Give the backbone structure.
Amino acid sequence: MSTDLEKYLKHQRPDLDVETPDDQIIWEGIRKDLGTSAARTVKKKRLIHMRNIAAVAIIVLSVGYMMGDLIREHRLNQGVSLARIDKHLGEREKEYKALVDFKKNEVGSYNETDNIIIAELLEEIQKLDTIYEQTLKDLGELGYNEKVINMIFDTYEKKIYLLELIILENNKIKKDETDESIFL
Amino acid sequence: MKETININSRVIEKCLEGDIKAQFQLYKQYSKAMYNIASRFLNNKMDAEDILQESFITAFNRLGELKNRDAFGSWLKRIVINNCISLQRKKKFEFEEIDNEKIKDEPEPEEGLPEIDPAIVHHAIKELPDKGRSILVLRALEGYKHKEIAEMLDISVSTSKTQYSRALALLNRKLTSKANVD
């Protein structure tokens, strides 16, 4: 007998679905939930898109900064320098340059980060470089001038300070990433 | 059949792109069958509706994980059944087993199965005690093996087999009784 019933159930299986769900209410619930998760996805995509734009901007800025640096170096080698005015001033400038290069190398290993603070700091450094170039021109025109020389060293100090801020920011990012991975 | 599979594949592709019309099309195609599975399993209209909604949301959100698009129906069915089992566990269903006494209460079935309306069979299944009903639905209607049922419901294979044969016997008697009344 049970075999007959089993056969019947198997055979009649599609016809046994006699109840009809309340599609209006159920679909409305599904649609609302999917709408919310879709909104979440769109928001996430937008964030990623903005992050990508910021990353590209940073890369462009970094590359621009590096290229500018190379061009400036080239110009300086051909033009006015503190060493040509005074030997001691030249040595002092050499020390500053070495420190700047050292800090730049340290920054260079992290320069792929897409942090907005770092972008602003890089912009500030570019401004300082422009000021530095202008001051060197003034030095060429005016010759030995204490105010101009102080301004040159001032730009070096500010540049070192800004590079240190970038290093600190990079370290902070690295630390946050490590903390996140620990939590994950 | 092949045509349906191809259509499904295209609809699923659109669903993955977030096309709401395609999602509704897929819902309409499967909602009735899935609702009836949940309804037979849980014997509660509101619970069955909740499970249907929850299962479709899960399916749409995890559609990307579906490797074989042709198997959407069975994949969705598994989600529905898993959700039904989870709900039963959450509600701490005290599974009422079918013993021989319950079967004796129903009249002896006649030889062969009388001509019977599927709606009556559907409702007779829903009247079965919880544990036997779940097993009968999974085995006789959804085609799962006793080993799979035992794993799903966290019972032994022998319990699954015993409860299934008792559920089947009880259903048989119920149907005979209903046929005699008519």
User: Anything to note?
Assistant: The first helix of chain A runs from residue 2 to 12. Helices of chain A lie at 2-12, 23-78, 82-85, 87-108, 116-142, 146-183. Chain A has a mean pLDDT of 77.
